[in-house]
Amino acid sequence: MYDYNVKQFGAAGDGETLDQYALQRAIDTCSEAGGGTVYVPRGTYVTGTLMLRSNVHLHLGMQAVIRASSDMSLYPPVGYEAYTNPPRATYILLLAREVSNCRITGEGEINGGGTEDLWFPENRLVPMRIGTLLFTGCSGVRVDGITIRHSDSWTLHVQQCEDVMISRVAIRNNRNRINTDGIGIDGSRNVQISDCNIESGDDSIVFKSIDGFACENVTVSGCVLRSRCQAIKFGTESEGPIRNVTIANCVVHDSTIGLSLYLKDGGPYENLVFSNLIIHAAFKFPFLIDITPRYYQSSKPVSIRNIVFDNIILTGPGRIFIEGTAEHPVENITFNNFTNSMTGEEEDFSQMTKATGTSRCDADPDAFNYAAQPYQFVAAHVRGLYINGMTFRKDNPDVAILDRGLLYLSHIEDGYARNINHNPLQSGIAPVQQDHCRNWRLE
């Protein structure tokens, strides 16, 4: 038995009537009575911004749809986007600010209205874009079972929250609409994400620490991800640490970049474990770890350390890329049982450059371009590189000869590679090239 049915508060659910005020009255009444369940039955409920409250469980019944209104006057600004100049206001469909014990569950749907294609540079010209769900400064957040379609901007944003569980959520965004990130975890702790199915026009799951708050103690498991941009991304905004994260038993398919760690703003990335992942990605660098200060003339101390990749299958035309800096190398990175299936050949390695992860970056124009090296695994400035079983294979039985070398290693200190398996190489290609390496051995 549900405590509060939105129909009892005057909601029409006919897809035409503005139901914002009826829905908000139901939520507020429930909260003022000490909490309970607000039930949204079958129907389409048009609304602007709804404020979620403490101890309120919003349950969407089968075929219930909360749909964003196209009337922009119904969305008050709730803050400003990070790092935009001039600052651009943010707008949200469902907003929870400093609440506790807030739940959204059910078999129903939230529709953000972002159906049309929107890519660079047109996205910068749109004066207002509506994010779907924002939890900021909250504790005890639960999101389970719902479907979110056509978010106009960020879909499910968890900002500076604690004790969060997101499970069995389906996100279906327009792949040709930029900035429609799936789940964003920003400066939050004690977060569990499981069994979600995400299709996004930007990053599917992204970790950030924009305002310096630590993003820590996070698990992701059993998810299926498809992204026009990056399926699993760390950064680029990282003023605080991102640490103690495990991502396991997930599938990435039909994506541009499968997994990336971009460190630009100073906060360390540490104690990260990635296990049992299947990744299909089409970009030239689908698997990337990079320390590049955002502004090279005023760089901050940075570090990426204690990273484990275990039982990974990577498929696509691109290569694995790892780069630290001379002052701040990547530290203690381990690969166990890593399989790289190559689906194509590169035309000109010399013209390649690594991805920056953002347009807001002033990189050193005189830096050495490690991305131009004709090798499948490129690593530079790493202290502690341990490879325990890595297979390079051509995913084409008719052309089984590799057109590139296996390992390019520059400024590597400490570590080893064991059990490297591969298809035959083209004549004249050195399998391994080492430059300025110390205490590192191929066994």
TrEMBL record:
Family that this chain belongs to: Belongs to the glycosyl hydrolase 28 family.
Pfam families, sorted: Glyco_hydro_28
One GO molecular-function entry: polygalacturonase activity
Name the record gives this protein: Glycoside hydrolase family 28 protein
KW Metal-binding (keyword) present: no
Magnesium recorded as keyword: no
GO annotation (BP), single: carbohydrate metabolic process
Keyword list, A-Z: Glycosidase, Hydrolase
Organism: Paenibacillus agaridevorans
Transmembrane residue ranges: none
Gene3D superfamilies: Single-stranded right-handed beta-helix, Pectin lyase-like
